[in-house]
Automatic annotation (TrEMBL):
Keywords, comma-separated and alphabetical: Coiled coil, Cytoplasm
Chain residue ranges for the region called Disordered: 81-100, 238-259
InterPro entries noted in UniProt: CLU-central, CLU_dom, CLU_prot, GSKIP_dom_sf, TPR-like_helical_dom_sf
UniProt protein name: Clustered mitochondria protein
Biased composition (Basic and acidic residues): 238-258
Domain Clu per the UniProt entry, residue ranges: 407-647
Coiled coil in keyword set: yes
Biased composition (Basic residues): 84-93
CDD domains referenced in this protein's UniProt entry, alphabetically: CLU-central (cd15466)
Keyword Endoplasmic reticulum recorded: no
SUPFAM superfamilies the record matches: Hypothetical protein c14orf129, hspc210, TPR-like
Coiled coil: 682-770
Amino acid sequence: MSKQTTTKKEEIIPMNIEKIQPQVSTLDYNSLQSQVDLSTTLVQETPKLRQTNVPKTQEQVKNMTFQGYFKVLIKLPFSNESQKKKKNQKQKKNQQNAKPDTCLLEIHPYERVVDIVNKLANHPKAWYITNFNFVDTKNKIVPLEKEMHEIAADRTKPQRTTTLFVKEKDYTPQQGLSHFLRIKTFLELLSSPLRNKDWGPSLSRYYRLAEENVSVQEKMIELPEIYKIQQELLKKNEKENEKEIEKEKETEEKEKLQGSRKKKTYTLGDFIFSQPKFSNLIPNEYMQNITLKEPLKKIGYSGWNKPPSFRKIQGDFFYIEVTTQEDDTVFITSCPKGFFINSSTEKNFNFTMKPKTRLSTNLVDLLKSISNTFKESVAAIEKKLGELKEIEISTSDSPRFSWFVPEDHHFYDYSGNYGDELLILYRDWNKEINDVKGMEASSGEKIILREALETKIMNDFVSETINGSIAIVEKRIRPIEQEEQSSKIFIHRGIFYSYPLEILQQNFKDGGEKATRKVIDNDIQSASHFNRQGISELNPPFMVSVDYQGHRICGQWIPPGLDSPGSNKVIHGSFDSGKTLVENQNILNILKAKQNSLALKLHKVKDKDGKVFEKVLSVESKCIRGHDGRLYIIDFGKTTPRDLNYPDKTKDAQCVLRHELINIFDIYKKTQFLDAKMKKWNDEHTKETDKHNKNIKALVDKINDKKKELYEEISKSAKLFEQNEKTKELKNSKEIETAKLKIQGIEKQLNEFTKELKEVENEIIQEQLQVRGKFVKEYEPVKFNVDYSTIANLDVKGEEKNQKDNVELIEKITEFLDKTVKEFAEHLVNQTLSPPDGEVLCRYMHERGINFRYLGKLATLTTKLTYLNHMIIREMVVRASKLILNRELRECALNKKTTLVATFFNYLFGNQSKRRPKKSNIPGVTFTHQSIWDEIKKDVLTKFNFQLDLEDKSFLVGNELNMLKSLCKKVGIQVALFDYDFKKIKPFKKSQILNLFPVFKSPPISSRIILGYMEKIKMDLSLGDHMSALKTFETALSIVQAINGMFHVDVATCYSFIAMLISMINLKAAIKFEKKALMLYERILGVDHPDVASHYITLASFYQRIGKTKAALNLYGRALLLHKLFLGENNPNTLMVMATIANLYIAEGNIEEADKIAEYLIKMNKEIFGEDTIQFANAMRLKSSIFGARGEYKQAVEAENIVFAITKEKTGEESKSTLNSKQLIEHYMQKLLVKNQVDSKQLEEEQSKKPKKN
């Protein structure tokens, strides 16, 4: 059989939700399956859950059903070449008949005109047109804020094309400068992407092989085609499958007639067992194709700037000097109408236009007219731009930094200028965000517009805070005062900056730098939690923390009036940590109304004078009223209770519980409450329950009886049909027809009984839901008094019972946390959860409400599994190393930082067995190899309560690259892509430390609309309604793109889900969506991220299912390379990829290569997990498959017997895996029996042919 065909029966099967779990996302659906499990109870709480469980914003958007994308035809203006003066009337006539360039775009109905402008900016025909208006067919200017459905030619028919014309307009000085810098930067980055500091490539295109027949310019399927695909395929699937089956039969018959042909097989060869190099991470094809010929030798500001006053008033903005590749130097004037070449030289200034030249509306057309080389280079750039997908050239609103770059590239800047940037004016961030929040939200479109603007402002603020923090650390911004305390405080472009590590001296005394960092992290988490509740009356701060060169800078926007001189402005809370309290009844009422969602309990405290106040937030919180009349929270203090496992009130004051834990605990308590209530109700209504059960049993018996009757009739009719086929007569035709009619009658009755059974079951469910809904209203959500241990709250009369109840509740949640940690450890050891590295492990911990400080306990609980135990130890060592390295960087001179980092890396990752000097003899370095490890051991014990054994550093061997990656990303260090030899005592040189970049934390910017859609998707998936989930995901994708733009992890997650869901219908369409997801994940998370590897595996599995073996192997190979480099050879994820490749080899008949992998997997799983584990059983299953493919059925039975024994012991005799193993043994036994019979017959025939002895 030349090609494996997937039948309809095989394609449309119930989906395993675990397989479609997304990898990384800022939204809650990054752990969708686990959250579906937790919310299953809540899904059935009320009959109207689909309405009540979705935010109000979702209700307002419910009318936004997807009707398809609108097509927009953009007509561009004529270029200068087509606008040359004609010598005769005929040429003028041809000019009038000439057609302008056009761009056809597909725009979502709720995208705005400004989004069309952004899409046009990356189009190969329009990238250099920056200053224009859109006009419609009536020559009216189209406002940028208009949405597509408002300007469409026909709203009811999205397929009809809407035409917009690009009408270039006059420049302002700022627009002229923007155009110049845009052209310069775009030419640089497209001719060499490595110029980009935020280098983040998409490499997946370099793993598509020729066998795919996929060109680089392949048009990817777009979302409007989804429903068309569904309808067409569902109609044609049966016919197509029937045709494919017929073709397969014909092919089999031909092969039998012609003789068996040797099938072409593909293999990864020795790569599977080799150790890849770090330099292999970037394919050679990428490095060979990233550069193009430089279009110009030089372009920059002319020395004749600034224009003289008599030219300024004539409209000259600035002058540009250009040297072409032909060595011609020209001087260009920027003016309101565009750009022209003036008659100046290096010695003489002449502002007049150079003869035989003309005015151009853009620089590119002007430079094309004077340089053929530039014209050719731009054509190559535009070709390259046309090859790239929008995903590959889209940019992020927030900065991203890679921890490695291919080489230490430094390019000649042919602009000849340093520090060019546009003038950034002072921005009132607080006013901007509040103006957006105050926008009308009467419809779904307006809500999306509001959230898109809010997201844009937030992202701009993060970027500006990062830039400001870098400038402060590099001492390019002065503090507000020169006093010792005030010298650590800055205000720049509307942002308030501070050095918290230096200012909060008290935290240094109590818990050191770690405690100070916890204060900041807790503030960010509290602000994020508060924002999610949507309390519009109170405005929390938006804070960003930036770690750069060892320093931590905090930036937040300034509430109006806080930066002006005056007396205390606190109107609610305390400005001196609870000693003096102020109460505002309005604010208190607002917080009282949100107690349940905030999980904070109303309690009483007293100030230093003994006066009693009511509080919801902690005593450290502060609220002010700004000059704009709005209320602002400028300090939260604690918003969750302290962790009782860390009882020290000074050192562990900031060890608080996570909000995720409180949410999970609340669901747990609610489930217990509802189950108890329902049990009691069912006990009280036993008669009704028994009656329902009898009805159901009676209907089930009827259905079973009818099924038996139906089976008997089908058997009878089958026998009659066989008799007719044998005799080739129609004697029994009447009996057959009667049997058919009888079968139809039975089927009708069966359907009626089934329908009746469903109706009865639905009545019971509805009744249960109504009762459950009543009990939900009686449930009291979990709430905590976060001041229970403070002096302000301890001695308040009348609070004794509340304090006692609160302490009991905190003790219960602490017990719940301990239980959660133990269960999580069990999942890790049993491999029901298998995080590939420390980063994903910590993400899993946070999803379950477990803090990093429990890594030590996890290490103690996972000693049975060495690889996992070592992964946890490495994560603790990296986090301890981060604090030490940050402190050393903070105290080190700038010119010594690369030496310091290289030395630190050598001491940490270099050969540990060789002797090291006891004293440092390196200038600028005060630590030694021994002092670093001693301090790491001390910090691991203090922070994680784990005793690190420095005599045994086996956790480090073979995983140095993974630790290097983790430490670089946490501290902000960029290294060269180089094959570091960790067997050497000094694997690093200071020249390989290329950059120090900022690492930032900010509250996640989440959309309430998208969260509402995610709730609906959870319900659809939990109910098995995958088609509904697919439609909802498609709508969610369009909204995510409208709010966050293309370059966002949520967009990638939506693409991935759509690919997985649509793979049940059409694998080729699924491949195109998964490619988009993979490209985005590579660019956003980095090419080395473990989640990127998992998406390579997903894409490979799709190719495998459509028979593209070579492409699938190549993608599996890429995933294996990533796992081997960063996870190690003994990681289960690495072994799983190898097992997948082996199964592919078996399917393709490449048994010898599969056998090599199987032997290796048996050996590795035996060493890592042991011989009595499921992992070892899976390896033996692979071996039994190989024996079966060879026809060695006796050995296959022996191998499968081992699998059966293990699965029976571990999963039970009736488990699916045990039953499958039992069936395989029976299958192999039958094959063995048939083979033995054939062999005995052949032996008899051979003996009969031998001559008999006399």
